[in-house]
Amino acid sequence: MIATKRSRLERFYSMYESEVTKRNYKNMLEVYFRLIYESGTLEEKAEKYFAEERDFEEDVRNYFSTILTRPPKSVEVMMSMCKTFLADNDVEFPSRFWKELRRKKKGHGAVTRDKIPTQEELRRILLQLPLNGKAFYLTLISSGMRVGETLKLMQNDIDLNSNPCIIHIRAENTKSGNQRITFISNEAKETILEWLKQRPAFLKHYSKADDGRLFPLDYENVKKQWAKALTKTGLTEQDERTGWNLLHIHTLRKFFRTKLASAAPVDVVEILIGHQSYLNSSYVRYSEAQLAEFYSKAVQTVTVYGNVSYANKDFEVIKLENAKMRVELNELQSLKVSFEKFQQNYGEMIHLLGKYKGDSAGFVNEYVFNQEPASEVTQ
Fold first, then answer.
1. Of 163-167, 237-241, 268-272, where does the model show the most confidence?
2. Of 174, 147, 103, 140, which Cα lies nearest the Cα of 259?
């Protein structure tokens, strides 16, 4: 059997394990080749590109000038991808060429301004979320995981019987390609247990196939939940340049990094959030039990409700709201019954008015006193 030759793009993508990285690089290549060819698939453009006689340096300069208005970090990643892709296809430039481009790049950090949420702000936001959203975001807040990692968690990746509750993050779901562990707070665990009770009904209601994930949601679902909650709480301050909300989803990872580092060694925190340099150099120095001990001592810093458990705090608020809603529903039901009775009486009155035209005594006898008219009785 003759092996099928892989395309240039397939060979390039195979260098990376993360599906997120592959998808991001594909989007970057779409931008690159869109500047050169007006039509054709990405694969066709890539094959045609290296079959032609081209001024590759000029193409890269044009690409660089096009993306220069993007955030500096994005420019850096896109140019790194470009350099690697060209080298993988035997197109390499002298180091002075890349140095020249780097000198033209403005800034080195992120452009978007954001801020780390406070516990009070998080409490307000969580109150506006459905149960699956509460469970999802409390997991993010207390674990330091990325959004994509959390969405890919399978139910058997989390040990709800351990203390602290441990999460095993699979290598194929991490940015670094390395598996790791992290932990969640008791309030996150309590909320997940409540969510698991409702999960089957959720799947049935939304006609979703059960793929085994702890949170059968996608990025757009959780993004919309967060945006709606921010709107309801009035926490919608935006960055003037990018228009992004200052309390965007990814600030929760910063919240974890900052808060936990105030009570635990920095290298332990970096291991839990999955920064590759720490995974490679420090992970072997700590056992799972040691990481759990450090986390347990510092977990209060990433607990939204402080010393009061989530169940005793937020659930009590929800119970009060539910009780209030039940009273209102009962009142509405009473009004409905009263209205239906009024409709019935009104109908009877109209009927009798037609029956006793000009005979007010007869109408009063039958409608008001609910008895037959005297004339009809004597007959």
1. 163-167
2. 140
Q: CB burial class (10 A; 0-12, 13-18, 19+) of residue 56?
A: middle
One-letter identity of residue 39: S
Residues 5, 329: Cα–Cα separation, whole Å:
67
- 182 has which bridge partners? 167
Cα 319 to the center of its chain, rounded Å: 26
Element (H, E) at 184: strand 180-184
For residue 164, whether the previous peptide bond is cis, meaning omega lies within 30 degrees of 0, is yes
**What are the C-alpha distances in Å from 330 to residues 171, 214, 244, 263, 323?**
53, 36, 43, 50, 11
Q: What is the pTM of this model?
A: 0.59
208-236 pLDDT per residue, tens: 889 999 999 988 899 999 999 999 999 98
The mean predicted confidence, pLDDT, of the chain is 83
How many C-beta neighbours within 10 Å does residue 283 have? 15
DSSP label of 182: E
Backbone angles phi, psi at 94, to 5 degrees: -65, 155
